[in-house]
Amino acid sequence: MTDTRRRVKVYTLNEDRQWDDRGTGHVSSGYVERLRGTSLLVRAESDGSLLLESKINPNTAYQKQQDTLIVWCEAENYDLALSFQEKAGCDEIWEKICQVQGKDPSVEITQDVVEESEDERFDDMSSPGLELPPCELSRLEDLAELVASSLPSPLRREKLALAVENDNYIRKLLELFRVCEDLENREGLHHLYEIIKGIFLLNRTALFEVMFSDECIMDVIGCLEFDPALPQPRPHREFLTKTARFKEVIPISDPELRQKIHQTYRVQYIQDMVLPTPSVFEENMLSTLHSFIFFNKVEIVGMLQDDEKFLTDLFAQLTDEATDDDKRHELVNFLKEFCAFSQTLQPQNRDAFFKTLSNMGILPALEVILVSGMDDVQVRGAATDIFSYLVEYNPSMVREFVMQESQQNDDDILLINLIIEHMICDTDPELGGAVQLMGLLRTLVDPENMLATANKTEKTEFLSFFYKHCMHVLSAPLLANTTEDKPSKDDFQTSQLLALILELLTFCVEHHTYHIKNYIINKDILRRVLVLTASQHAFLALCALRFMRRIIGLKDEFYNRYIMRNFLFEPVVKAFLNNGSRYNLMNSAIIEMFEYVRGEDIKSLTAHIVENYWKALEDVSYVQTFKGLKLRYEQQRERQDNPKLDSMRSILRNHRFRRDARTLEDEEEMWFNTDEDDLEEAEAVVPPSDKMKPEQDLMEPISKFMERKKGNTNSQFDITQLCPCLSVLFVDVLVQGGLVGLVDYPDDDDEEDEEDEDGDSKEDALPPSKKSKVSS
Predict the structure, then answer these.
(1) What does the angle CA 436 – CA 442 – CA 443 come to, to the nearest 5 degrees?
(2) What pLDDT is attached to residue 629?
């Protein structure tokens, strides 16, 4: 059987002044040759690896706390702690530390934490101890001054703490407090406030154990009610005894656990509510109080987690249909507090905690809570908090559960659908709970935190499940509110809810692929969403525009054909015209959408917009976006009217006729280095090809183009005047390829003749010519 006396947990203090659990193991002490001294060794109980190897330095300050803790500072800003399972093991290691440092094991701290100045050290060493004045009403002022003067010096703080501890001074002070309160001696009560506050700042575990005992803690809180800076005392004891009631929803058979829960709640109350906000100097002097609360919470969670009967009874009553509403309300609140306590645990302990709850059936219990407590605001809030703890801990665990239950239950009672209904039915005017739940749903459908293994892909399985069983529940409010040209309900709360739904749908468009695409096209979701551009609430109209903008940003021809086939730019143009000349977010968002289409040269959408909505937009002149769209459209039509030039350009793009970029640069540089006389004498750069066409046939397309250009510009145009090196390239292409095709449109894209991924050309994606209602 393993010796539990030496079983310990190793903790380190992080930058946030929180203790991090480094593992559980068994501690021993012995001489380590490498460190040249007696050292503490902790080996992990799981695999025997070395968790801690720390030399016991003669000058290191070790502190013993709560009979089972040893705390010390290994280096600057690196605190360590050993938490023993049994007091006997802690005493053995403490004796070994004191033996190495030559200290009496009865002390609770072996060294001074901070070095004193030579004068202070000489003065303090010359006096063997600190003598406290008698605990009398007439000497309270002297005692308060003594405490205040001792706090700046670590050595004097240590002596004061020893004097208070050895003389049983705290209990005497509390007796004096009761006398002062009976006599309504306000001056004495103010002195006692300063004294007790100073004792807290002594940062001494032994003193805390006395002050936080059942018989003393309420009097300690009473002393702290009489702050001299306040005109009236604060009724902390009244709150703790009358308002705050301990409800034992499941009987706790262990009296030690019950006492620990009471003590932790009261000490936490003292830290958060009773003690004044500490200064930077005082914050460091309360580290022992923080540690006291932290280790108490760890111990409480561990004791409850190990009590299988307690957890079994808890979940049995939660899921029992016979449990009345008041009882279930108390059980849910307890479970919420239990999960909140677990947040103080370190990652490995938190994993074990949630695995235990999962094995006990917390997710099925959560379903019962949501179904039975749908009308209770507090139960819904507690259920939301519990669900958030589970999703934040392990979203894959939640996904696996809901996919498994879908094989047995109807869609209406699936956990994720209950969460969505809970979000939709939020009665809070600001939809605080709905916002929180929407964030959790977003986490669940986020592919970034989904697992992929050799046997299965969580992303594929869960998204297929979600779009089949849950998406219709999520989009139901949207579809119900957009049956006409305007939203059927346009109040603020409904608009907020629809904005949340649109936010999640927009996230799906960005991160999901064919699932959301199929859903949008088959259910005609975009057309329904654009109804919301007529909302009186600008934020909702902007959400609808953002949704469409994300779809256009994908540059997916399936989406583009869907938009053109249903003339879905029409509500956008209407919203733009109805906005008038106002310069606001609506105006900017719509113009940016059209500018994106023009800048990215999305040809199918460009043609659709110009052919159907140009008359409505041609008068907009304060931006060049719409004129730029028209220019794009005309250039595209011009290329369609001249297929010979277009085909020659396509051949030029073929790699067989392309010149190496470095060769072109070298030739251009050679041209600039060539004298004009030499250039005039040269008749050809490259010898003519035998396969050249007659010159007249070759130049005919170019001549026609020149005539058209002259007719448009009324100016002379010589292609060889564009750039001297351009003529070189022109002759080179003429000879090598037997083709003339140098004339280009600057706005063209190399993708103009490529087919869509489904085999259809972009021209085939255009709908029949149809005049828009707006353009007419």
Answers:
(1) 95
(2) 93
CA-closest candidate to residue 340, choices 304, 291, 289: 304
Structural contact between residues 219 and 266, judged by C-beta atoms closer than 8 angstroms: no
| Per-residue pLDDT tens digits for 309-365 | 888 999 998 888 888 888 888 899 889 988 888 887 877 788 888 888 998 889 999
Assess contact for 530 and 548: CB atoms under 8 A: yes
Question: Whose CA is closest to 508, among 517, 500, 499?
Answer: 517
Kindly report whether the global pTM for this prediction surpasses the value 0.85. no
pLDDT at 686: 38
Contact between 685 and 728 (Cβ < 8 Å):
yes
**Residue range 652-676: average pLDDT?**
49
In single-letter form, the type of residue at position 73 comes to C
Token pair belonging to 739: 């083709």
- Strand, coil or helix: what is 694? coil
> Number of C-alpha atoms within 13 angstroms, CB side, residue 31?
2
Q: What is the pLDDT of residue 407?
A: 82
Instruction: Return the half-sphere exposure (C-beta side, CA atoms, 13 A cut-off) of residue 435.
Output: 7
**Pair of tokens at residue 530:** 């654009």
pLDDT of residue 374: 63
Looking at residue 702, its amino acid is I
Q: Which of 48-57, 296-305, 309-318, 500-509 has the highest mean pLDDT?
A: 500-509
Lowest mean pLDDT among 74-88, 190-204, 242-256, 329-343: 74-88
Domain locations along the chain: 7-101, 139-295, 555-642
The rounded distance, in Å, linking the Cα atoms of 165 and 565 is: 86
* For helices 377-393 and 347-360, angle between their N-to-C axes, nearest 10 degrees: 120
d(CA 602, CA 591): 15
> At a CB cut-off of 8 Å and minimum separation 6, what does 11 contact?
19, 20, 21, 22, 80, 81, 82, 83
Greater pLDDT, 285 or 52 = 52
Token code pair at residue 240:
């703790």
Contact 22, 35 (CB under 8 A): no
Token pair, residue 658, equals: 């392309």
Residue 301 · residue 345 · CB < 8 Å: yes
Q: What is the token pair recorded at 716?
A: 């002379």
Overall size of the chain counted in residues: 776
With 0-12 CB in 10 A as exposed, 13-18 as middle and 19+ as buried, what is 345? buried
Cα separations (Å) of 77 from 73, 74, 288, 341, 383? Answer: 7, 8, 15, 27, 40
Cα 55–chain centre separation:
41
Measured distance CA(760)–CA(751) in Å, rounded: 14
CATH hierarchy code of domain 7-101: 2.30.29.30
pLDDT of residue 705: 47
From the list 469, 459, 479, the residue with the least C-alpha distance to 409 is: 469
C-beta of residue 80 within 8 angstroms of C-beta of residue 52: yes
Distance CA 111, CA 368 (A): 57
3-class DSSP assignment, residue 329: helix
User: Does 236 have pLDDT greater than 60?
Assistant: yes
Distance CA 714, CA 263 (A): 96
Between the alpha carbon of residue 448 and those of residues 389, 442, 451, 458, 554, the distances in Å are 19, 11, 8, 11, 19
* 498 token code pair: 């629809």
Q: Do residues 45 and 11 make contact, with C-beta atoms less than 8 angstroms apart?
A: no
pLDDT in tens, 557-616: 999 999 999 999 999 999 999 998 889 999 999 999 999 999 999 999 999 999 999 999
Nearest to 315 by CA among 298, 299, 334, 296: 334
Residue 63 forms beta bridges with which residues?
71, 109
First to last CA, the chain: 91
